[in-house]
Amino acid sequence: MRRFGRPAVLALLIAVVIHADWHFARHTHHRLSLGWSQHWIFAAIGFAIVGWVIARLFERPYATGAAVLALAVIVAQAVEPVAEVVIYQGRIGYPNDPGRWGVFALCLAAGIPAFIAALFFCRPRRTTGEEDRMSFQLPLANSRIIEDCQ
């Protein structure tokens, strides 16, 4: 259970970020809305934080990150809107607001690059031994000096 528990929680956290981004972006005449045009900043920060956690905790951060991101998008853009229509309108359906898709696209356009950057740059540094050293040679004439400094 622990193996799937943490990624599921992280996927729900990204789904919450996507949903909160919708509330930050939509017009203020709706209940619980801010009409903030820079809502994508919140999305980028939220995605980067979850990417950082994945990069630090999991051995295969790219595979785990892809699964977490896919699950989060499904929950945030398929399950949650249908549940919202069921709860507030008493019918099964999907909201027909075209602004939702624009906000969602902007959220992902800002969030996914931040997520990938966090996965790439926030990996723990390997310092256990010779097997973890860089596998390529530097193309410099003084590459031995540079390798000794590492």
Would you give an account of this structure?
By secondary structure, this protein is mainly alpha-helical. The chain has one domain (2-125). Helices cover 69% and strands 0% of the residues. The protein has helices at 2-25, 39-57, 61-89, 98-121, 143-149. Helix 1 crosses helix 3 (61-89) and helix 3 packs antiparallel against helix 4 (98-121). It is globular, with a radius of gyration of 20 Å.
Tell me the β content: under 5%
Radius of gyration: 20 Å
**Could you tell me how far the N terminus lies from the C terminus, measured between alpha carbons in angstroms?**
40 Å
Count of individual helical segments: 5
Low-confidence segments, given as residue ranges, are: 130-138
Order of helices and strands: HHHHH
- Main sheet attributes: strand count, strand direction, barrel closure: none
Task: Please indicate the count of domains.
Answer: 1
Fraction of residues in H or I helices: 55-70%
Task: Give the topology.
Blueprint: H1 2-25, H2 39-57, H3 61-89, H4 98-121, H5 143-149
Features:
150 residues
Short characterization:
The chain is mainly alpha-helical and 150 residues long.
